[in-house]
Amino acid sequence: xxNIILAFPDSMMNERLRRIxxxxxxxVASEVGSVPQxxxxxxxxxGGGVIICPARLTGSPAANLTSVLSDxxxxxxxxxxxxxxxxxxxGVFALRTPIRPIELTDSVRMLLxxxxxxxxxxxxxxxxxxxLVHEERxxxxxxxxxxxxxxxxxxxxxxxxxxxxxxxxxxxxFLQKRSMDTxxxxxxxxxxxxxx
Length: 196
Known about the structure:
28% of the residues are buried. Helix 3 (101-117) packs across helix 6 (168-182), helix 5 packs across helix 6 (168-182) and helix 5 (147-164) packs across helix 7. It is globular, with a radius of gyration of 18 Å. It is 46% helix and 15% strand. The strands form 2 sheets. A 5-stranded parallel sheet has the order 2-1-3-6-7, with helices on both faces. Strands 4-5 form a two-stranded antiparallel ribbon. A hairpin with a 2-residue loop joins strand 4 (56-57) and strand 5. It folds into 2 domains: 3-117, 3-Layer(aba) Sandwich (Rossmann fold); 128-195, Arc Repressor Mutant, subunit A (Orthogonal Bundle), CATH 1.10.10. It is α/β, with parallel strands linked by helices. It has helices at 11-22, 35-44, 101-117, 128-136, 147-164, 168-182, 186-195, and strands at residues 3-7, 30-32, 49-54, 56-57, 60-61, 73-79, 92-96.
């Protein structure tokens, strides 16, 4: 099971975020206030997950945590106003505050679901049978999509890139996974994202 860890020195912020996540059925596994507590919680909990934290945690950039955390964890950094963020690290995403609760919950769900589908650090190649099943469930080739469908999919990717600080590849993978999970065509999933 994937976990959610809140890592803010301000316990009121942890509480506020926990309530927002709980309101949509997302359970928080741990709330911590420092890097040592975070590392202890991440080691104790099995299955990886998402760590939500500020841009700086106990004096150092939160993105540096990727060098000491298991690759099973993604970081969702909440940036305030003028903070600058470098999105070159794998597994590190950011949202600007103030943030609407729906943006937070959608982002957390997206990270929890996407990482379960495809990890950029995957250690084992897929089984040939899994590859065959995946090939049979693929969307129709891009050439058969209408120009309008392509435009909607590209717009949905842009929303994910801007709102969730994803790369284009991550946004495309998320759309594909949501399409496979729901059984809806990629264009339907794109419309749903644009409607939220």
